């Protein structure tokens, strides 16, 4: 057997050793690939679009979640605007008593204002940011108390980056005389603003912890993470315009979410990120109609206990178990039927 590009004819024994080395490398590569495929197959494969990338503005690896706008989020309806009908009884032509045949005088019943308020479609423009984050970590910091004294506490924090990629969605009117929009168009702006809120949810106890603003923690975290870009808390970042960019190496805008007094026995939990998109769901209309915002749910687990928490490593994703009962138990904690590192939810 002659290997391409290698002439071993003048050196006895060299050709055999090279062939054995190449075969060993191929076998090792096959075994590694098989192991990776087996792990993916055991959990149903990768079911999300997240990726890993290096960033020069905050040394280390960040997990990138791409924007996920949905055309179905650009409209609601048909809805009955009952609050409008109740507030303006004068639009009820039936209540005038001047219609002996039970029909409007001129227009068909469907063209009356009262009937049109029962078939209203609300349309809106939808945007969504790209979200990247570094591993969730812990640090001990001195936190000011209401009485002005300092108290040492364990702070959970997540350093994140947002970038605006454009590609917002909105309904497009082909014919203004037709009430039905048959097309969705893509629009982009020079920049957008972010108004984030991070809610850490313990799946074992059901408790939720909203991020807290800790001005004294930002500088310490920036030094620890070696971040050279400006780092903002979740209030300061709302004053910063996030520019539109298509550059994969663009710095984006960096922020940090912080939590204190989190349950030390935390094992299976998620971080719900609100504000990345303006998409929402509402059942009906009016003050009593349930209103749910679209949030990015990031799943985590922390193998460890309440002792020496700062040494525990928080892992991204849902843990995998070979035992089906154990896997089903964990999936039930997260409210999933299969392993997902993240998902978009309405809450």
Automatic annotation (TrEMBL):
Top-rank taxon of the source lineage equals Bacteria
Q: What is this protein called?
A: Uncharacterized protein
Q: What is the lineage of its organism?
A: Bacteria, Pseudomonadati, Planctomycetota, Planctomycetia, Pirellulales
């Amino acid at each position: 057997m002659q290997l391409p590009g290698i002439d071993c004819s003048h050196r006895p024994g060299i050709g055999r050793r090279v062939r054995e080395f190449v075969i060993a490398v191929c076998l090792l590569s096959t075994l590694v690939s098989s192991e990776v495929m087996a792990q993916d197959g055991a959990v149903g494969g990768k079911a999300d679009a997240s990726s890993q990338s290096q960033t020069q503005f905050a040394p280390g690896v960040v997990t990138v979640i791409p924007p996920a706008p949905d055309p179905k989020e650009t409209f609601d309806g048909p809805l009955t605007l009952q609050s409008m009908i109740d507030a303006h009884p004068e639009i009820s032509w039936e209540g005038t008593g001047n219609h002996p045949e039970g029909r409007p005088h001129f227009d068909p019943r469907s063209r009356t204002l009262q009937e049109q308020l029962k078939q209203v479609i609300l349309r809106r423009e939808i945007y969504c940011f790209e979200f990247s984050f570094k591993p969730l970590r812990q640090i001990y910091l001195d936190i000011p108390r209401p009485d002005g004294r300092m108290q040492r506490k364990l702070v959970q924090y997540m350093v994140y980056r947002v970038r605006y990629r454009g590609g917002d969605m909105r309904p497009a009117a082909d014919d203004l005389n037709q009430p039905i929009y048959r097309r969705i168009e893509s629009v982009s702006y020079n920049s957008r603003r972010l108004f984030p809120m991070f809610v850490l949810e313990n799946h074992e106890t059901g408790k939720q912890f909203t991020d807290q603003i800790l001005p004294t923690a930002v500088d310490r975290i920036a030094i620890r993470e070696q971040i050279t870009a400006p780092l903002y808390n979740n209030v300061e970042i709302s004053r910063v315009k996030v520019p539109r960019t298509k550059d994969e190496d663009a710095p984006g805008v960096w922020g940090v979410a912080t939590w204190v007094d989190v349950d030390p026995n935390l094992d299976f939990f998620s971080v719900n990120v609100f504000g990345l998109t303006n998409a929402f769901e509402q059942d009906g209309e009016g003050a009593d109609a349930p209103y749910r915002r679209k949030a990015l749910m990031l799943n985590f687990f922390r193998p460890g206990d309440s002792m020496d928490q700062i040494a525990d490593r928080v892992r991204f994703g849902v843990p995998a178990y070979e035992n089906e009962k154990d896997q089903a138990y964990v999936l039930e904690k997260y409210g999933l039927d299969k392993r997902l590192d993240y998902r978009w939810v309405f809450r």
